[in-house]
Description:
Blueprint: E1 2-3, H1 21-30, H2 43-48, E2 59-61, H3 64-74, E3 81-85, H4 91-97, E4 102-107, H5 110-119, E5 125-129, H6 137-141, E6 145-150, H7 156-165, E7 172-178, H8 179-185, H9 194-202, E8 203-211, E9 216-217, E10 224-231, H10 242-253, H11 260-268, H12 272-282, H13 295-307
Helix pairs in contact: 3-4, 7-9, 10-11, 10-13, 11-12, 12-13
Amino acid sequence: MASPSTGSRAGLTSTSSGRSRSGRRARARTASPRRPRSARPPRELREAGISARKTLGQHFLTSPRTLRRIADAVEARPGETVVEIGAGLGALTEQLAERARRVVAVELDDALAGYLGERFAGTNVEVVHGDALELDIAKLAGGPYAVAGNLPYRIAQPLLRRLLEARPAARRLVVMVQAEVAKSIVSKPGDASLLGVSVQLYGEPKLLFRVPASAFYPPPKVQSAVVRVDVAPVPRAGVDDVEAFFHVARAGFSTRRKQLRNALANGLGLDGASAGALLAQAGVEPALRAQALAVEDWAAIARAWVAAGRPGSAS
């Protein structure tokens, strides 16, 4: 599993081992901290003759315990396919293949896709070389499925929405993202975010555990976390017009510091009185701020906006 980063790769410069007795005594006297040794490339990476590509933000998860925890969290059911996003060197793929009837391993990198095809030839793993943002994940699964793997940090949000909007929907997503993104996904009313509201429209997210940079080669400069989303068969809160829901939610979060009436007026292109009327119809207090609202509140506002004829012209 290749974990993404913000695009920069941690330095791999070697440091002196300082093995001489005098060196050890000198460090003891000065109590200077021990400098970490550079991480060694995984065996599979060396055997494949492949290097981590900075342009793709590749960081390979090498912690056996973390790999097992991710695979276990999927809780693959009999007859179910697991679609893995960003299979990398196949470390997580191997764990998933032991637990699932079938694994579809999606990998964008040419060299890695070729390596995976050879490594898993003749097994229950099907390797797909392609971009998860463009592939029809549900069609690849061909039946009941779950999704596991990593979401590249720079495209995590659109990719997550694409996965959640796929039809038929996955039963569950177990994905690794940047720790700050994970925090936003599971945010609750009072500290809610647009990303959190967006994900919670489709299911129930839970932060499972954090993953330190030391669990990767090369170690990224950010912390990661694993999130599970138990996906609902249809959007929650009775939302049948997803476009309207996101239109008003984006408008409300467009100016987080403003009270909701002013934020909606600004985001939807309305006057204050009209925005206040929408909120009154939805039963939402106009003095609240966007981060205080739950999915159900945004659903009520969206229904009121649609019932009023979708007033306003701002996008």
